[in-house]
Amino acid sequence: MQHNELIDALVRDLRPVRRASAATQLSLLGAIGGVELTLLFVLHLTRHDLPAALALSTFWWKCATFAVLALTGSIATIRSLAPARSPRAGLRALGTLAGVAAAGLAFVAYRWSGPASPQWLAGFGCVAEMLALSLPAFAVLAFLIRRGAPTDTVGTNWSSGFAAAGWGVFVFSFACPHDEPAFIAVWYPLGTLAIAAAARLALPRLTRW
Amino acid sequence: MILRFPASACPQAPHADDAPTLPDVAAETLPDSSAWGDLMAAAQTGHGGAYRRLLEQTARWLRGYFARRLPYSMVDDAVQETLLGLHEKRHTYDPLRPFGQWLIAIARYKWIDRLRAQRTAAEALPENLTAEDHAPSVTSAVVLERLLATLNPRQALAIRLVKIQGLSIQEAASRSGQSVSLIKVNIHRGLARLTALVRSETDATQ
């Protein structure tokens, strides 16, 4: 019988394993986001006018959009960790989300009565903060991907990049003092795409198995 | 019991850059995939006997799978690669889902990965291999790389780490993620293959 040596080695190497659980993996990501947000409040790093911001539609647009992005991207990534599953449906959902979010922001912008000009220089700092805040989620996703068995590695890399961006930007929205729709329309998508592209570049070595 | 799916022509090899899509279960015939699922579920709890039966049966099936898709000389390595992948990723199998889809997805991934590696190895070889000052050492290094490229990636990695970089078996195991016994198996089989390859090339030139 061919491959006897290998089969013997694999049987000798056999240990009980804990099956991958999507619920556990998603909870882990949620916990990381929760810890980040808690630290933001504990260290007084939230925007100083947070109570007043709760009355602004742009604040809720930021929170809702990127919470949904984080959740959708995370679910797409976690599903793709099984070899027989593809993240493409999740990526299509993300595309739909982008369209809905853009329409929502356009509606908010139409009704906006505050300052209209984006603060360009501050935007670079915001993108840097988004990147930094996405790192914990990115690390958890990289760990999950490494343990998983994705077969559509390109799709998994993109979905995990968007998931990490979603978590990072969601937390960032509690610290960002800028509510102008034009600023949000420029820097938030830029930050999201930058994080997703960075993940796409960084992950291939991890996703191969 | 043989489970037969709607027949189709033997699938053509996809372009190596294409991202894999859902497995083409419809083109494959899997003997009693539900029984294999039960064996894998038992193996996930550490049942060695069930695992051995599963590996032996899937190895036979994988030979047929890769024989339809790869040159004969690559079939054994592809089967080994897939068995290793099945072993490392066995925790991703969900007993509530068909084992056949899970196995085919892994086999297809390894198939495409092998095609990609072969294509990269062919493109990486420059036409002018020598330089006047250090031709012998460059030639030796290139020849060695060409030989190692004919091995499956895990065998090549094990040989590089232990025989070329001089790591111990334990160090190589921790660096590569393979167990100590797998490192030894891969070195043994890799060197045997290299020896056979060098002998066959020597015979051909005489």
Structure in words:
The complex is a heterodimer of chains A (209) and B (206). By secondary structure, chain A is an all-alpha fold. Chain A has helices at residues 4-12, 22-42, 50-53, 57-80, 88-110, 120-147, 153-172, 181-202, 204-207. Chain A contains 9 helices and no strands. In chain A, helix 5 (88-110) packs parallel to helix 7. Chain B has 206 residues and is mostly helical. Chain B has 8 helices and 2 strands; from the N terminus they run ββαααααααα. Chain B has helices at 33-44, 48-67, 72-88, 99-124, 135-149, 153-164, 169-176, 180-205, and strands spanning 2-3, 30-31. In chain B, helix 3 crosses helix 4, helix 6 (153-164) crosses helix 7 and helix 6 (153-164) crosses helix 8 (180-205). Chain B starts with a strand and ends with a helix. The model of chain B is unreliable at 1-27 (pLDDT under 50). At the A-B interface, helix 1 and helix 7 of A face helix 2, helix 3, helix 4 and helix 8 of B.
- The span between the termini of chain A is 26 Å
With strands numbered from the N-terminus, the spatial order across the biggest sheet of chain B is 1-2
DSSP strand tally of chain A:
0
Chain oligomer state: heterodimer
Structural class of chain B: mainly alpha
The total of helices of chain B stands at 8
User: What is the count of DSSP helices of chain A, taking H or I runs of 4+ residues?
Assistant: 9
Shape of chain A: elongated
Spans of chain A with pLDDT under 50 lasting ≥5 residues?
none
Proportion of residues in extended strands of chain A:
under 5%
Q: What is the helix fraction of residues of chain A, given as a range?
A: over 70%
Helix content of chain B: 55-70%
Distance from N terminus to C terminus of chain B (CA atoms, Å) equals 52 Å
Main beta sheet of chain A:
none
Order of helices and strands of chain B: EEHHHHHHHH
Low-confidence stretches of chain B: 1-27
Which structural class fits the helix and strand makeup of chain A?
mainly alpha
Major sheet size, sense and barrel closure of chain B: 2 strands, antiparallel
**C-alpha Rg of chain B (nearest Å):** 19 Å
Whole-number average pLDDT of chain A? Answer: 92
Summarize the largest interface: chains and residue counts.
Answer: A-B, 35 and 45 residues
